[in-house]
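Blinded run. Sample ID left blank on purpose so nobody reads anything into the name before looking at the predicted structure. Input follows.
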Amino acid sequence: MSDESPSHPLPVATAIEKSGSGASGAQARGFVLDPRAMFVGGAVALIGVAVFALFLWMVPNAAARELQAACRGLHAETDLYPVLCPGGKACSAPVPAPDFTAEDMTGKKVSLHDFRGKVVLVNFWASWCGLCKTEKPSLNEMASAMASDDFVVLALASDHNWGDAMTAVLETLAPDALPKGQLGRDDIAAAYRKGLPNGTPFKVLLDPPAGDENIGKITASWGIKAVPESALIDRQGNIRAYFGNKREWQSNVAETCLRSVIEAN
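Blinded prediction complete.
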């Protein structure tokens, strides 16, 4: 006896009948792959791989464009200082941020690379800078609202001593706590503790200028000749956006820019 053949051919394989032997009359069936089906299947698989690869390529590029658009609303600079660029030629972000080490209010040495894995906003300022003082309240508000393990604000002061830097912070954030008249370092420190018992949501670092210069050594090494200026650095230590002059850091536009970098990493 023999089985009936399928009324329609199989799409991928063709059944082959083999008559069995012995009293049971058992039969075994085998399959051979259709070369045309293999070709079509392989082509479909290759197309799938290509589409997936294109997707992987497009995602980071789309994210980069979204980041640029978000920070463009905050008027990020198009070109960076040549000293920040490979080969010393003008370039645009992203580029690796130059590392630096500065002293905080406790005398501890703090380096930019200590914050690798976090998004960092470095704000270059000075006590003698009027615009820097008007920018500090918005910087303080933003740093407080966005405080997290993923984000830190470093305020690098181009000042010769801590007395000037601490006085400037008090003048902008807690003016009523600052005594009148000539004050020594201890008086300023006491007023600072009273006016800002919890400190500030941004970390203040001292960047003393060389000799009679006004711009701190670290700040000058970045090519900066006037303050305030700010650099937004991603988790890998790359400058993603740069801002000349003051910004309204508490604005929705600023938050969109900052979060675009935080969420992109």
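Unblinding after everyone has recorded impressions. The chain has a mean pLDDT of 84.
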